[in-house]
Amino acid sequence: MKTIDVVAGVIFNGSGDKVLLALRKPEQHQGNRWEFPGGKLEAGEALQDGLVRELQEEIGIVVTQCQPRTIIEHSYPDKQVRLHFWDVTAFEGEPAGCEGQTLRWLALAELGALEFPEANQAIVNELLAAAIK
Ligand SMILES: Nc1nc2c([nH]c(=O)n2[C@H]2C[C@H](O)[C@@H](COP(=O)(O)OP(=O)(O)OP(=O)(O)O)O2)c(=O)[nH]1
Ligand SMILES: [Mg+2]
């Protein structure tokens, strides 16, 4: 199976204690689960360019500060993904669900309460651990 490269943003609020999540549509792969906004990298596209493009397209923000956080590879029964997670620590504009998706800011300590795609388990645990330090 071909691995699909995906780039997604862990978007922090100004005080760094909340992150922005989006609910995947029921008909999408991993539907009805919460995600870090992002999407598939285009052929030949640099990671940061893909991140900036996806966050502009999906939630209408302009990323002004970001850093790579972690890479997670995961095999779903139907798909193999390589998720490139980037921290987004500054942006311009007010996030909105440009594709009709529900968005919410969630305190890091509350991340355990939502359903994420299986591939996100490690990053969710890492963010939860950071919240209780
Ligand atoms: N954006 C995002 N995708 C994730 C996360 N966790 C996870 O397993 N995925 C998977 C679900 C999808 O198979 C893939 C992302 O693809 P996508 O559907 O968002 O791609 P896209 O925005 O380019 O959308 P499309 O135009 O292809 O519909 O990665 C996550 O936290 N964020
Ligand atoms: Mg997407």
TrEMBL record:
Record key words, sorted: DNA damage, DNA repair, DNA replication, Hydrolase, Magnesium, Metal-binding, Mutator protein
Q: Name the source's superkingdom.
A: Bacteria
Q: Which GO terms describe its molecular function?
A: 8-oxo-7,8-dihydrodeoxyguanosine triphosphate pyrophosphatase activity; 8-oxo-7,8-dihydroguanosine triphosphate pyrophosphatase activity; 8-oxo-dGDP phosphatase activity; 8-oxo-GDP phosphatase activity; metal ion binding
Cofactor(s) needed by this chain = Mg(2+)
The UniProt record lists the keyword Cell membrane: no
Keyword Metal-binding listed? The answer is: yes
InterPro entries with a match to the protein in the record: Mutator_MutT (IPR003561), MutT-like (IPR047127), MutY_C (IPR029119), Nudix_hydrolase (IPR020476), NUDIX_hydrolase-like_dom_sf (IPR015797), NUDIX_hydrolase_CS (IPR020084), NUDIX_hydrolase_dom (IPR000086)
Binding of 8-oxo-dGTP, residues: R24, H29, E35, F36, P37, G38, N120
BP-aspect Gene Ontology terms: DNA repair; DNA replication
What EC number is given for this enzyme? 3.6.1.55
The reactions it catalyses are: 8-oxo-dGTP + H2O = 8-oxo-dGMP + diphosphate + H(+); 8-oxo-GTP + H2O = 8-oxo-GMP + diphosphate + H(+)
What family, per the record? Belongs to the Nudix hydrolase family.
Q: What's the protein name?
A: 8-oxo-dGTP diphosphatase
